[in-house]
Each structure stands twice: as C-alpha cells, then as structure tokens.
Amino acid sequence: MALLIIIFSLVAATIICLVSKNVRSMVLASTAAFGISAASASLIADKVARHGDYAPFRFVQINSLTAIVLLLIMIVGFFSAIYAYPYLAEEANKKIIGRTRTKQLFILLNVFMLLLVMAVTASYPILSWVFLESTTLAGAFLISFYNKPSTIEAAWKYLIINSVGLLLAFFGTLLFITNLPGSVSNGFVTWSILGSFAPHFNTVITKVAFIFILIGYGTKVGLAPMHTWKPDAYSKAPAPIGAVFSGALMPVALVIILKFRVITDVAVGTSFSQHLLIAFGLLSVIVAALSFITVVNYKRMLGYSSIEQAGLITLGFGFGGIGRYAAILQIIYHSLIKSSLFFTSGNFLLKFHSSKIKVVRGALSALPISAGLFLVGLLAVAGLPPFGIFISEIMTISSGLKHYIAYALVAMVFIVIAFIGLFKQASSLTLGEKPKDIKAGEGSRWLLFPPLAILGLALVLGFYMPPFLHTLIRQAVVSQ
Amino acid sequence: MLASIVSPSGLIILFSIFGIGGIGTTLLRGNNRAQNLWAHIFSITGALWGLIFAASALISNREFYVNGLATSFPFLSLSFHIDKLSSLFIIIICLSVLFCSIYGIGYVKSFYGRYNVGNYGFFYNLFIAAMLAVVTSSNGILFLFAWEIMSLASYFLVVYERHDHKNVKAGYLYLIMTHAATALITLAFILLFNHAHSFDFNTIRASVPSMSMALKNIVFLLAFVGFGTKAGIIPFHIWLPAAHPAAPSHVSALMSGVMIKTGIYMMIRLFLGILLPIPLWWGLTLIIVGSISCVLGVLYALTEHDIKRLLAYHSIENIGIILLGLGGAMVFYSLHLPTLMLLSLAAALFHTWNHATFKSLLFLAAGSVALATGTKNIEKYGGLIKSMPQTAILFLIGAMAISALPPFNGFYSEWLTFQSLIHGVLSGDILVKWVFLGGLVSLALAGGLALACFVKAFGSTFLARPRSVMAKGAKEVSIWMRSGMAGLAVLCLVLGVASAYIIKSLESLGREITASPRAGLITSVSSRQTLQIGHNFGSISAPFITVVAVATPLLVWFVSRYFINRHQKITSSPTWDCGTDITPRMEITSTGFARSLTMIFQPLLRSNLSYDTAPAGSLAPTSIVATVGIVDIYKKYIYGRMYSLINILSIYFKKIQNGNINAYILYILLALIIALAMGI
Amino acid sequence: MLKIHFFQVTVSVVFLSSIYFHLAKRNIRISMVYGLQSAGVVALLFYSYLQKGSPLILVVVLATLAVKVIIAPTFFIRLINRHKFKFAVDPHVKMALGLAIIGLISGLVTLHIFSPLTTIIPANQTYLTLALASMLISVFLIANHKDALSQIVGILSLENSIVVFAIFAGLDQSSILDLGILFDIFVWLFVAIAFISMMYRHIGSIDVTRMKRLKD
Amino acid sequence: MHILAWALQILFVPLLAPLGVGIINKIKAKVQRRQGAGLLQPYRDIRKLLHKDEVISEDASFIFNIAPYIVFGITLIVGASVPLFTSVIHLPSSDLITVVLLLATGTFFLALAGMDTGSSFGGFGSSREMTLSALVEGLFIASILVLVILHRTTNLYLIAGSVHLDYADLIAVALAGVSFFIVLLAETNRFPFDNVDTHLELTMIHEAMLLEYSGKKLALMEWASANKLIIFAAMLVNLYFPVGLASNLQFGTIALAITIFIAKLLVVYVAIAVLESVIAKLRFFRLPGLLFTAFILCLIAIGLVK
Predict the structure, then answer these.
(1) Any idea where the domains of chain A sit in the sequence?
(2) Which of residues 80-99 of D touch B (CB under 8 A)?
(3) Eight-state DSSP code of residue B174
C-alpha cells in the first residue's frame, strides 16, 4: 500500500509537471510528492523492521536492505527537489538557462526517482534491470541538461558506458536464470526463486554470471575501472542532480549487486565474491584517493570522492563480519553527506561562476555558511568525527585486519592519502582571502536549508539511530 | 560533599559548561564583546570547576567509571574513567586553561570586526572539552573520537586568522600530520580490539597477558609514533613549529603547554598502565628518542628568530626531557626496580606539569609582545623592557623557569630528572648504563643551550634599544592579559616551593597508575622540607633555596647600599660609543647572538653562513649582508619526498581518465576478461 | 536436418555481421547489416514461436521485427542522410590487426574456462560459442570505433547476441519481460539517435574522439 | 665552635678570593720577569671601586642594576655550599646539580646585563659567554659524574668526605680531574678561553660584559669572578683529591684542615699562573674542540669505573 502511495504520488507529480504551466505548482507538487514518498518509505521501513520482508503484491519484494535504501533515496530526492527550484531560479536570473527548463528538470527528476524506486523494489531481477536501464536514459537527459558541448560529451559517455555495462549485467542475469531447471525458468523468476534454487546451481556458471553482474552493475555504482563516466557526469549535471546520482542511484545499483551476491554465496561459497568485492573496492579506493591531490575541478572531486566511498563500502561488504555493518552505515552516511556537498558546491558555482578550484578562493568570506558546510562535509567524508563515516571506516578496517591484513593496510594508507588530497583542496577552496570582484553574501535561504538539514540529519544519525532503522540494519547484516 | 562532586554528574557538569560556552557564543550573533566575554567566562568557570572536581577526586582518593550511555553503535560507548592520572591531567589542563582564558579576554579584543569571534569561542571551548575528554575516556573509540575532535578544533583555531596564507599552510600541515598519526593510533587500537574483542581499556588490560610479544611490539611502535607525532618528537615534529605560532597566542599556549601533553598522557596510560609487562627496549627507545629531541629541539630554537616558533621548538625540547623521565620509568619497570620507576615517572609527570605552566606563560608573554609590536620577528624588537616592564618581568620568570634556574619550578623537575637518570646510570648492565648516560649528557647539553637561547630571546627582545618603529611604539598590554600571565608566573614559583610534597604525591600516584602498590618510595621529605632521594643520595630543599636565592642578593644590596660609601653619586650618560654615535643597528641581533653556536653545531643543523656583498662601485662595497640559514632536512628529505611521490602517482593515475570513450570501454572489456581469467 | 541448417545460417548471420561492423566503411551498409542481423534474431524467435505457438511470443516476434529490422535501420538511414555522414570514421585499429584481435577473441571464447557457458545445452555448443564470441566482438567494436553510429550499432548487436545466446541457452522466460526489454531497447534507440544529432549539432562531427574536453 | 665553623664556611670564599687573584697575578708577573703588584692589590682595587661614584648608561634597565647583586649573591651561596675545609657541615644546597644550576643563574644575569646597555661589546661578550657556558655545562656535570658514580651520591660533601678510594679508580678520577680543570679554566675565564687582563675587543669575553659597569657594581662583579675562581679551585681540590678535610669540628683539626686546604689551593693557582704564562689564548672556534677532548676524557673515565 505504502509503496503504491509512493508510486502514485510520483506519477501524479510527473503528470502535474507535464500539464501545468505554472512553475510554482510543479515545484510544490514534486516536493510534496517526495515528502509523501519519504513518509511512506519510512512507514515501509518500520513495517519491514517489525514484520520482516514486505511483499504487498507479486511484482514487489522489499527486504530490510531495500527498505533502508528506499527511505534513503526518498530523503535525498526530497531535499534535491527543495534545492532544485531556487537553484534553477538563480541560474535563470543569471541567464544561464531559460525559465522553461525548470519543467523539464522536474519531470525528469520525478521519472528518474520513480524508476529507481521500481528498480530497487522489483521482485524480478529482469524487471530491476529494465528499470535501471531506463534510469540510464532519464539520467542522460539530466546530465545533458545545459545543452553545452561538454554536457553532451558527458551524457554520451554516460550513455554508452552504462549501456554496455548494463547489457553485461543483463547477460549475467540471464546466466543466473539459466541455472534454473526449465520448468521454473519459463515464466517469472523472482529473487526468492533464485535464492531457493541457489544450492543446486552450477558453480562455474554462477561465478561467471556474478562476474558479469559485478562489472555490469558496478559500472552504475562507479567502481574502478568502470568509473570513468562518473567524474564527467557529476561535474556536468546540475548540482541537485549530482546529489541524486551519488545519493540515490549509487546505493540502488549496489543493492542489486548485493542481492545477486547473496545468491552467489549460497551457490559457490562466500570467499569467491569476497575476493572480487575486495579487489574492485580496493582498486576504486586507490584510483580515487590518488586523484584528489591533483584534481582541478571541485565537482569532479566530489565525483571521485563518491568513487572512493563506493570502494570503501564494497570493501566493507567484501571483508564481511562487522565490515558489512560498517558498509551499510556508510551507505547511509555517504548518501546524506554527499548530497549536502553537492548542494553547497552548487552554491559555490552560483557565486563564483566556475567549478575550477583555482578560481574559488576564500569561500568562507564569500559564502560563510555554504563554505562552512562544504568544509565540514568534506572533512566528514574524509572520515573525521563527529560524523559516522569515522566510525564506519574504523569498523571496516578492523574487520579487514582480521583476515585480509594486507588489503586492510593498503586501504588505510589510501584513506590517509585521500584525506591529504581532499583536505588540500578543501582548505584552498574555503580559506584565504576571497577575490576582490566577488562580493560576500549568501543566496536565498532555500539554497542553504537543504544542505544544512541533510548534513544535520547525517550528524544526528552518527550518534543516534532510530530503533526501526537500527533493527533494519541488523537484519540487513544478517541477511547479507 | 566531595563524593557528590566526584561523580558522573560532576563530569557531566564539566563538559556541559564548555558546551554552553561554545554553543552560546555562536548564538550571540554579531555582538563581539558579548561573545568574547561569554566564551571566556564559561571557559574560566569550566576550568575552575574542573580544578575543584579533580582536586576533590585526588583528595577524597575516589575514582569512578561512567559506563553505559551506549550509543546505537556496537563498541562505541561513552564510558569515562576518572582515576588519579586523569585527575592530575585535568588539573594540569584546567590550570593553563584558567589563566589563558583570562588572558584571552584581553587578547581576543584584537579580532573584533576582523574575524568572527563566535567561531573562535565555539572552537575554543570545544578544544578544551575535547582535551578533557581525551584524558578521561576509557574506551578506545571514544578516545579516538575525542582525539580527532581535539585535533580538528585546534586546527580551526590555527587557521582562525585565515586571511594569512601562512596560517592556512601551517594548518594544512598540522592536520594532515596529526591525521596520519591518528591513523597509526587507530591501527594500534584496532589490533588491541581484535585481540581483546573490546575497545574498553580495562578489558584490554585484562587481555594483555595472553597477548603475543610480536603484537605488543607492533602496538608499541604504532602508538609511540602516533602519540609521538602529537607530542612533537623529532622527526615527527615538523607540524609543531608551523602550527603553534599560527594560532592566537593563548591558544598556542594551550596547544604547546597542554595539548601535546595528551600524547604523553596516552603513552603513560598505554605503556605503564595497560600493556604491562613491557620489554626493556621500549624504555630505551624512549630515552634515545628523548635525548635526540631535546638536543635538536633546542638547537633549532637557537636558530629561530620568530619568537613563537622559538618557543615551539622549546616545546619539542621539553617533550624530549619528559620522554627521558618516562623512558627511564619504563626501563626501571622492565628491570623490576619499582622504586626507581616511581622516581622517574614522578620526574616525567612533574616536568609535564611545570612545562605546561611556564610554556603557557612564555607563549602568553610572547603573544603580548607580538600584539604590542605587530610582529613576531625578534630582530624587530629591543628595549621593550622600558615600554612594557611588567610583561618583561613575567617573561623573565618564564625564561628562568624553562632554563631550569632556581628558584622556579623548572629547576626542580629537571633536578629530579637528572637524579633519575643518574640512578639509571648506576643500575643496570652496560647497555642500559650508556643509554642513560647519553640521556644525561644530552639533558645537560640541552640545559646549557636552553640557557643561551633564553638569554638571546629575553635580551634581544626586551633589553637595549628598540630596533624598529614597531618596537618604539609598543605599549603595555591590557590588565586582563597581564593578570593572566601573572597568575601563571605565581604558579611557577608556587610549584617550585611546594615541589617536595608534589613530587612525593606524584610518586604515590605513579603507584596506582602502574598497579604496583607494594613499590616503596625512594624519596622522603624531612622536617626541613628537604626532599631526600635514597639514603642521602641527593637532597634538595625548595624553601631553603628560595629564601637564600632571594635573601642573599637583597642582603648584598642592602650592605653595599647602606654600609659602604653611602653617599655615592650615580650619574647616567650615554653608553660608551668609542667616539662614533652608537645606533640600535649596532646591537647584537638574535641571529648574531646564536651565530657562533649555529656554526659550532653546523654538522647537525646543516647551517650555512653566506655573505652577500653589494656590487662595489667604489673600492669598498656599499653593503654586506650576512645570512645564517639552516636547512629543514625533515621537510626536504622525508616529507617532501613522500608528498612529491604521491603527486607523481596521482599524475600518473590521471592518465586513466584521458577523455577517450573508446579507452573507457576497453577498460571494461579488459576488466571483464581479467576478472573471468582470475575468477574461474 | 533443415533445423540444423537454419540454426547454422541464422547464427552465422549474427556472428558474421558483428564482424562486418568492424570492416564496413559506409554507414548506410552498417545500418543495413544491422537490420540483417536483427532479422536473423527475429527468425530465431519466430522458430521458437513455431515450437511453442503461444500468441504472446508472436507479439514479441512482430515487435522485434518492427523495432530492430524496420525502425532502427530506417532511423539510422534518415539520420545519415540528414547529416550527410556517409563514411564511418576510421577505427583505432585498422583492418588486419582488427581482424587479428577478432580472431583472438573468437579463440578466447573457445577456451575451456567458457566451456560451462557454452555447454549449458551441449547440443547447442557451437551456437552458444558463436553468440558469446559475437558479444565480445561487439564490445570490442564499441571500444575500437570512433564513429558514434558504430558504437550504437555495437551496443545493439551486443544486445542481439545476448538474445541469441539466451535462445540457445534454452532460456524462454515470460514474454512480458521480453516485451519490457524490447521497449527499453526501443526507447534507448530514440535517445541514442537524439544524442547523435545533438552531438552533431554541437561538435559538428560524430567522431567521439573529438570529445576530449572532460579529462583530468 | 659550630657557629665559628659556619661563619668560616660562609666568609671564607669572599674573604680569600681576591687574594687568590693577587697570587696568580704575582706569579705571572714573576714568570714574566716583572715586579708585579702586591698580593693584596685586588683588595685595594675592590676597595677603591667601592668608594667611587657611578656612571650608568641611559639605556640600562633594572636588569643592569640588579645583576651585580644577584651574581655576587650567587657566588656567596655557592661558596657556602661547596666543601672547603670540612666535610661534616653542609647546606641543603650543596648538591651537584643545584650548584651547577645556581652558577648558571649567575651566568644568566651576567649575560643579560651585558646585553642591557645596547653596546656592541656587551652583546658579543654575552654571546660568547653563553656559547661557552652552554658547552661547558655538560662537561661540568659529566666530569663530576665520575665521582657521583664512584661514591653513589650527588652530595658534594659526601663525595669530599668519602676517603676510601681503591687504586683501580684513581686513574678515572685523575682523568675526570683533568677535564674538570678545563671546566675551571672555561668557567673562570682563564686562558686559553679568555684573557681577564685585556680589554681587547677581539679576545675579551667576560670583561666585555662588564664594560659599562663602574663603581660599586663593577667592584661586586670583579669580586664575584674572584669568588668563582676560588669556588672552582676548591671543588677541584676537594672533590678529586679529598685529603685533609676536617672530619670533626675541633679547633685544631679545622686549623689544620684550613692550612692544608690553602696549600692545595696554592697548587692550583700556581698551575693556572704557569699555564697562563706558557700558553696562548685559543681561537674562539677552536675551543669547542678542546672541550670535546675533555668530554671524551670524561667518557673514558666513566667507562673505567664500574
């Protein structure tokens, strides 16, 4: 029921955006839709926490991890919707885009989120694939929103790379299904069917299939070496879209990989998938960590940072044990903090008209609040307290030191290197004297509220997990 | 009464005072004066409460745990443990905080309108609270949490004057160094956790006996380097002389006087409290590192002419001295000489306390001078004793204390350190003997050099004639700042006079830290306040020395004034000038003063003296500039190399993102094939 | 016997056309050949319809026919005519070497590590092997060709090969899902073509290597 | 008797110190084939200076004015704390480290006074002084450390009072004594470190710091340096050659002890005088080498004792 509310509200919002002429009504409708969705998502989460998996009708199946991610993406979507309008309005005032574009953005945003919801909740692997593939299409237009050569380039790369990746994932999915006896395989194959037949799977086929899945959906997650589209897309998309991409799309793709991972582990034992996850996670961490120190564009930097985070999360799942717990925590924290970072980076862009790091100086003088939030958020992502990533990284490393000492140490080293790089950029962005021609002062308060609120949420969750969320995480850890 | 103070609620009150202070300041938007007062009044109150709290904990001999308050995470529980060591460090912290905050009321006035005083107040109180949390937490994760917050808050205070890019660079260096160090500490704690399955200190202690020696050694190395970096031991010190001068002076005082001591605190906690029993080489390592740090630290200080950097280098020196005591204690522990262990530990703790006092005093005085003149360059000072006599006297007291001159407190703790090192030389086999001997000699050498360094610092700052217009225009600083310094100066004397009792109680405190209750005390305090070491091995009487040191000069003055040639005529005239007119430029500068020592220690300092002769149009060159510079070998050879290595790697990895989509697809294909090849 | 011949023909059509994309110079021919390849796929689907005879599959067959054989090539051709890019941009790796790599890939899939995949249904081992090979060849096409159109075709032929593989792997799932997938491809086609013309408008070429603004 | 002993102990140094200087100067004069001033000349000088008026630099601060009293007072304290003729009475301050640091305090104020007037001479004077004392302090402690290790105490009186010395250690003590003698030369500004008789700016160290002083203050400074000389001489003879110190406070023993002590002092003075007559002053940057050699001697000595 609650899920239907989500879908209907989002569909309704889309329709309103399509038909109405008045921008304000679209914004209100979308924001309201996301608000309602977030509320019902938390209802679902609560239900799952109390009664276990939630499958209102046969197309839908929501386990604890799904519920967490559903709630998460809805929160991110909600704040992005709030942030998007004032942001676009500012750009329209600066004659960067036409006023009518707002309509397009909100339609695409709603559709995008709708597809994400369906992808993550669908009970059929194939359906999940179909919806995720469709997000690629919606995403392409969101990236090319500004219709500049550079944005077209980013969108094209995004389109091609992700299509290839997703087709590989499709193949992997099919391979999984071929494992089933013919009687089962014709008709609809659900996750649970796959799970129930997993013990009888052909191990080699399953291994190959999982490799295809990991590389395919890993492209969407942004694991190295399939990450190449990420910095381009993130840096070219409008700020709120960047938030949605790294805050909502990434976890969804990750969840689907994890669903397959559970099945694989049943079929071929855990060590296989563990090694793969560790390998790709570590590679991502290394590639991203080394990029920070010489990166020249702060939105690209955020892109790399979410590659690094994806890597750490994957590492956590790979290490297993307490690491899984850490990884799930980190999914939550990262989505929230990273969205806040994208919002504030949007404010930077509005103020300094450039996403070059060497252009932006003394942001703390120009934008006291945004820059403060940016600095705090960046330090939080780099793993400093009082934010939760600090603890989740410690957990990850400690679980790694049990069985994979070398990998854990390497990860630790590159976490520090990542900190060095990130922090170098952060201090050169925010501190120092501001350029003379930039005059101090924040934009509208609606540009400040979303990052502030979502960062505050992350901070609170760093200390206090609501009971239902906590039980969800526990269940998810067990089920993984 | 005491019981009610020494209780979880007492601790909660302590933290909440600083909490209110910090948050309240930010809420008072705009009104600088109110923010300033609010921030400091609360930190002062907090400091006072902390003193009451810790003092009554020590007096009532209570210790308590605050367990539970578990957050919704596994193994992060907000659990604290107040024992004697914690109480001692609370006292050390709060004493410095008290006077630095009083000073701060005057100092922060200079920020009005230029920087946001609200942020200052927030981070200042946060910083203090974090330090207190560090010395009270009894859970590894909570400790790391507080530790990072402490670093972060101090970082924001370092870059508080953020428009100066030097401060920004200093802050960057500081935070990455301390973060790397924290990574090592984290590893150490994780290793302990993986062994003990808990981050709780007591559980870890309980599980130590079953720990393999190799694991213990790894933990020791990680922890020693990690905490050593925070403490500023050479070669992990490079952040210290950069960061401490950058912060507002009273914050520098806290960082240099107190914050770096938290590293010492944790070393004591871990090495003498938790990881017992410890092998011999740990202690020897500490002594060797300590000797190096104290000699090199003071040598670098000699070459400095930025007054706050000079003081920062002296912190390195004094950390070295503390390490000599601590290392001695560890060696004695491994040699099963508990009484001597207590002696050295007392020396280390007492010197920690004293250094906190006089180093804070010196930084405050230096800050006053810098504020009055607007520069930190000693070469630009001179003659300030006339314009700011009280600051001068206070600085002089600090200088005498840090140079271990009687009758101030530095003298007694250094005396005690000497005694413990001599005992080390007397006991133990050939290796131990010579290591202790090395410590002893380097301590003596460092003492002499420190003396020279402070003659230079005081002389070229306050004496003779002003060497710049800034120094000419200097005025005495506000009453707040002077009273803050005066308090610390008095404390220097009091700690000195009361040294005998303090040392004894520190020894009995050491008993509890190291859980060696049966260890006898080697020291005894005779009726005449004389501190006896062993059976008349050595003895010292603080009151006697104080009285004599004050009375004798007075007596000499009195006699020569009133009994000999009472009607002497005293006229004042210019300094003898050999016929030329003598200008301030002829005075000896701080660089000139230290030149000969710099040259003598050339091999250690890599110092180079270069003459830059202006093109001689006529027969005689118009001007000759001599520059004495030293190479920072650590930055150049160690850290610089590491940093550039990372840079090179980074540029190399950038080639992955070459913008060509075909390549990107190829990556995927290759990843697929490799994964298939490896996976199956 | 006839069945065998039929399978051999269709599969080799798919396989050879995936190779042809590498060699073709003229974009028109590329799109034509794509139509041919898709026709092969449709034929296979139609065969399985004859096997089962469920009307839904017929729908799938017809839809596939419409989308892949008719709509896609026509769209391509219209695009080509509108923007007048007759000739495909040269690939990174030219003829001989390209063929060598293709051969390598084809050899790769015959290695024993792939045998469990190709022997899902032992009878169809040849076909599965060929399908797998043309998959990888298509990916290599996307990696090798600078021509935006070729990249799109590469992706589509990758999809075709996967479908072929699925058919020979005896994987006949509910046609609803097939339709869903097909719909996806359909929309994807539009999007891709839209982007090609956008690219042409902004960059004045469909040489993707011209797009090198975004890099570190 | 006890009171008398104390009075002697305290007054001995200031009263006899100028005589020591007189003796050295006399011997040097004789060696140089000069008549030389009378033995009591230093007393006359001090008396003359004490009754002169003073001229003080305008730039001088209170440091300049209090320094002489502190420096002189310190020598009084140390003089009372080192063993002179007896080893049975001692002050709480007669401890090795305490004495070293008390003397350092004197040097500290002396150097500050040198810088205070802003004269270039005073400046480099105190720079050189501090350079030397910084290097000497370590040697000072090291050279006495040998005795500390031998006698298991840092109390100077107990060191002086302990008569037993097995011959195995004599060589170590001798080596340490030699290096302590070098310390003495350095601390009392004697050849080859400094030349007390010259006011030649290229060479002077101690005198450079006193240039601005006159009258009483100069008298006190000169007197204090004389005290320092006798103090170090006393430490040398009583710590390294602890013979003939009164072990009780009978009149006879004390009288005997004092005569023996003075005799021992005379030996040291002769040695200094002869040395100053036969060797030249070393270049400043050669001095560290000399000190280092002495330091090596100490290490050897420490190595010898078990």
Answers:
(1) 2-479
(2) 91-93, 95-98
(3) H
